[in-house]
Amino acid sequence: MSSLEHDLFLREWTFSSRLLFYSIVAVTSLTLPVLVIIMALMKPHRTSQYFPYMCGIIMGNIVLLTTVFTLVISENVNVIYHILPGFVICKLSAFLVNSSSCFIHWTWVAMYSQRFVHVFFPLRSRRRLPRSTWSTLLIILLVSCACQIWAPITITEVSLQNGNNSQATYCSEHPYFRSSSKIIVLVESTITFFLPFFLTVTADISVLVSKVPWQTPFKLISADDLRRNNRSDNMKIVSKLNLESAEKRRITAIKRCLISATLTLVLNLPNYVLQVADEFFSLREHREVSIRRIFLQADAAVYILYLLQFPLVPVNMYFLRQNITRSSRKLREKTTLQPDQSRSFQMLEMSNDQSRVPLSTTVPTP
């Protein structure tokens, strides 16, 4: 009976491997070309403050998907294994996948944090934020690689054997590091996934639910309030329609980013939780074959969910690009209307008639 269960487990292992193989090939074949196209479409927006972050996220996803795709292809065609031994491939692939994943998550945090500062401290952000976003990305990349240096040290190739014959191999911790693997995986999952997504969602929710910034550099006032003599110092005149439109665009963009971050969290969470549970309860190598079969099925299911996040990346990048395009269009319109605005403010200073107060179409966009 034990031998029958073991044979059944090996057949399920083979089926899961083939299912994941075709899933990875399908997702990467669909996503990689679209990411390249989105990267090309982003070139006209090189002056945007979010352009380096978006390029970093796209490049990180390209590296991650290319590494996974190359790994599964090499396992099935046995091309790279004739050049490099299996344990080297396991170490290299684990390091590239973990480093790129950590870099992507923390780049999202950096981009959302910058938007948070721009919303709550619009004037101070221009003086205190780093002038070179590329330098920030380089720091994130170096820190991500440093945090994942454990992968090439502890990860190796492990064989799944049936008697004396090796039936399959997979990448796992070296037995020498088995005692400390729980702490390593828990810390790595927290740094790579749990902490950055908590910060990302927190920053988005704080911007979304806060109606008034903590420190307002100037007061926005509509023409209706101005006609009612509700004046104050450091005010800026805007049309009521423009003010409501800008607020609506900002809330819509933040909601879209919050939904995207939450959806990514949902798709990543089962995979990270299962891997942490495997380290603490040894589900993959459990003595009961039934437990190992359940883990095998769950591992395939959560990894497919994990793969579904990658087709969403170009969609999210496209919407961010649309926001940048609209902001650039608004900026050009404001620049074109600047002479008329100057004459309008001169009329405002010369006239005491409230009915002749001109409206400015200028409104700061967070």
UniProtKB/TrEMBL annotation:
CC annotations in GO: membrane
UniProt keyword annotation of Membrane present: yes
Location in or out of the cell: Membrane
Residue ranges crossing the lipid bilayer per the database entry: 20-41, 53-73, 79-112, 133-153, 183-209, 257-274, 294-320
Keyword entries, A-Z: Membrane, Transmembrane, Transmembrane helix
Superkingdom of the organism of origin: Eukaryota
Domain spans labelled G-protein coupled receptors family 1 profile: 32-317
Primary location: membrane
Protein name per UniProt: G_PROTEIN_RECEP_F1_2 domain-containing protein
Native organism: Caenorhabditis japonica
